[in-house]
Amino acid sequence: MSKVFEFVAESRGPSGKSAAKRARRQGNVPAVIYGGHREPQMLVLNHNEVIKHLEHEAVYSHVLDVTVDGKTEQAILKGVQRNPAKFQILHLDFLRVSMSETVKVHVPLHFTNEQTSIGGKKGGIATHSMVDVEVTCLPSALPEFIEVDLATLDIGETIHLSDIILPAGVDIVVLAQGSEHNLPVVSMMASKASKDDSVAVV
Description:
Elements: E1 6-11, H1 17-25, E2 28-35, E3 38-46, H2 47-54, E4 64-68, E5 71-83, E6 88-96, E7 103-112, H3 118-121, E8 125-128, E9 132-137, E10 146-149, E11 158-160, E12 171-172, E13 184-189, H4 192-201
Parallel strand pairs: 1-4, 2-6, 7-10
Antiparallel strand pairs: 1-3, 2-3, 4-5, 5-6, 7-9, 8-13, 9-12, 11-13
């Protein structure tokens, strides 16, 4: 597996705010790995290496190798705490995964054919209500991203969650809660220019 998807960590003994602050002062990121029917384990990772990993969008929706003191476990990244005032990662949460048990993960949405869509050719502008969606699936079926094709989207039309074509074995979590949760994902709105053009034609 690519090194992009391997986080190398060391076990961290004491927990608490003071231990976490000490780790950050030393240029590290405190973290925890939990789940998998095992006790949580406190970790510490090199901050610069973490920054490099998090530059890759796929890290957030990929089964990762987390190597702790030389022993590798498979996990997904469930949480990232950032300092809003600094370019600093404050804490990471990893969830251990079993290849035979389903996981819930937020997967990014990639929108295609926006400019060449029916509405786009008329000067319409796509308004995105979501940039990612929470899915459930086995780790082996976890997609890096989900494509939303706008090719047939016309002005005044909307693509909802139920309209998204999902990979095999992947389900959108919120849709299981009922049709009232079939939320809008992207809408094609008329721009001022396209409205003016329609008036001119009339």
